[in-house]
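Entry 14. Ran structure prediction on the chain below.
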Amino acid sequence: MIFHTDTYVTKCLYTVPVKTPHTPKTPEVLLWPSITYEERRLDYVDEELETYGSNRDRKLSKGLYRAAIASEIADIPSIDVPSDVAALAAEASVEIARFDQGIGSEFANFASILLRSESASSSQIENLTAGAKAIALAEIGDTSKRNASIIVANSTAMNRALALADRLDQESIISMHEALLGGTNPEWTGHWRSEQVRIGGASIHTARFVPPHQDRVPAAMTDLIKFIHRLDVPTFEMAAVAHAQFETIHPFPDGNGRVGRALIHAMFKNRELTQNVTVPVSAGLLSDTNAYFESLNDYRQGNPVTIVELMAHATFASIDNGRQLAEDLRGYEEDWRGRMRARSDSSAWKVANLVLRHPAINSSLVQRELSLAQRVADRSIGQLVDAGILTEVSGYKRNRRWVATEVVSAMDDFAKRAGQRRSR
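Output, structure tokens:
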């Protein structure tokens, strides 16, 4: 929900005590600013709260509320993480680069597969879930599953983020958000939010967290963008901290988590840590979403260590998971070679390669992607059906659709492995 506020003059600031659950191996001083708070007053009556809220919540809604003030980070000398965490982040960076070069160069189709999987995982953190089959069908126009359509929009936003990675600025971040929500909530796109938002709670007075007032968003984002362009901060730590700062600012009415995680990948690419694939960091974070949200709380309380450490461990887990996905798909490709009855130069092999990128297809997609005539496309699809690679799912003669069941099964297995240790 979105809440309108006036520009009530700040009466006092509240400083949140620093909480540092991480215990470094050697004593090191952590210097990072915690957020502060200011008092604001609502300028409207929450009709839903008045009708359905408790007496306590209705009474609270009449008074002042506290909105966060994001600390300025652009000119802080360094991110003073303990040496063991810095080493962990450096190791994660090496693993990301190795995974990107190894898998990305060997398996040409894997970039789109990982991007789709990462988009699904990032959406699942926001409790938006859909199976790989539904997501694949949504990509070719099936709008029957709302969550799947939202996840496809998230894939579009991630693609936009990677395409704009060479110029991370206000316009590019707003463009990422527009790719995510332009189809469903265009009124929220094209600019920073102009209204107060909250995270959790029955009202803004009982919310778990109230991000900065909308008046403070432009300056806070200018500061963040300046931080992102620093060259004296290690890439991995920079991406983790920038993500936490972005989530603290919460510059949009909705979609902040998904855009913020897409921003991680844009920063990796911008700093040339990745070139070929999207490392599925969100899939790693999915294993313990409570820890992820707690790391954001720690950051706001002046402790950037937790988000850096958590993202490093998420990276290791997600890369292991990604390698298993690649191995599964290699096995299917090898099996297809024994099942297909087609010449080596047949267009059917081109379609088999295509379904690794697009597990759900129709004739129009095949014609467009492979520049094939309809007759050739339909015949090639038929050969994959005969080999058991494609299964028709439409059930009617016109607008027929097919799914590569083994590919979507591998992607569903990837998602299951990512969520195995998810907090309850």
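The domain at 324-411 is CATH 1.10.10.10 (Arc Repressor Mutant, subunit A). Will compare against last week's run tomorrow.
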